[in-house]
Protein: GMP synthase [glutamine-hydrolyzing]
Amino acid sequence: DWSMEAYVAEAMQAVQQQVGVSGVVVGAVSGGVDSTVAAVLLSKAIGARFHALFVDNGLLRQDEVDEVMQRLSGRLGVNLRCVDASSRFLQALQGVTDPEQKRKVIGRTFIEVFDAEARRVQAQYLLQGTLYPDVIESVSHKGPSATIKTHHNVGGLPAQMQLQLIEPLRYLFKDEVRQLGRVLGVPAESVGRHPFPGPGLAIRILGDVTPHRLAVLRAADAIFLEELRAADLYHCVGQAFAVLLPCKAVGVMGDCRTYEEVIALRAVETTDYMTADWYPIPYAVLKRMANRIVNEVRGVNRVVYDITSKPPATIEWE
Ligand code: XMP
Structure:
């Protein structure tokens, strides 16, 4: 008889056995379900010999850094360090507009930052939140869909990093990871969180990623999510976010013509993120969202709603 409590005990023992009494483990956390659950499991198993690293790449959403730090380091007691590498990432992204190039630059920079931390704490082991579907997909995924977008957090272990892998979630499906999280006392906000891509807001800002455009997108996205939650719709969708388009549009304010940024809103229903349907947010809710965004976010004069499903569109715009 299989129970999650028994799985926890077994997984903790397996980690303790693998790393011995003096092994040091390093792992990146993003605040997402998988890395959070894996980090809590490791810190229960080996305490402060697990070093969690949260890389602030400057591409996170409003308040995300504080929320993740408070939850993991404060409430869950994980030995967690936040490295503010935002200027390094933004510098590396200067002038980069091609979506795949953005991913490459961000992936490379992430590895450099992470590698420095692994050396600093003299880790011999690397925690990865690999799930069972990732394991299967990386073995059987030979089709062209594997290269539609390079997801840098899947199998992104740099070759020169001589670290042994620890993958305590590799036999679990997503819903089982959530269940495991609940058993470990991970708060509901983490367990039920929508996925957020590793390259962050960089792939939701079409065109140039600048501090100013990041600020505009962050503000619009925060309003969108706040109103989605207020309408009790956050848990009805698999993902919801704002996108900053690479063009400007004409508008009018008072007696003046304006020429400002356009925000697109996207919300999808999905079970596996391989296919997705656009979600019919009620008109009254959309109206409130759009009104608030154009009134409260300086530099935006138009909001559109994305009504395409996947396929033929993808969930992200880049
Ligand atoms: P698409 O846009 O391909 O996205 O329909 C499917 C899911 O994957 C996420 N996504 C990424 N996640 N790095 C990530 O960690 C990436 O480069 C990346 N690109 C897309 C997307 O948010 C959605 O959940």
Observations:
- Residues 32 and 195 are 6 Å apart (CA to CA).
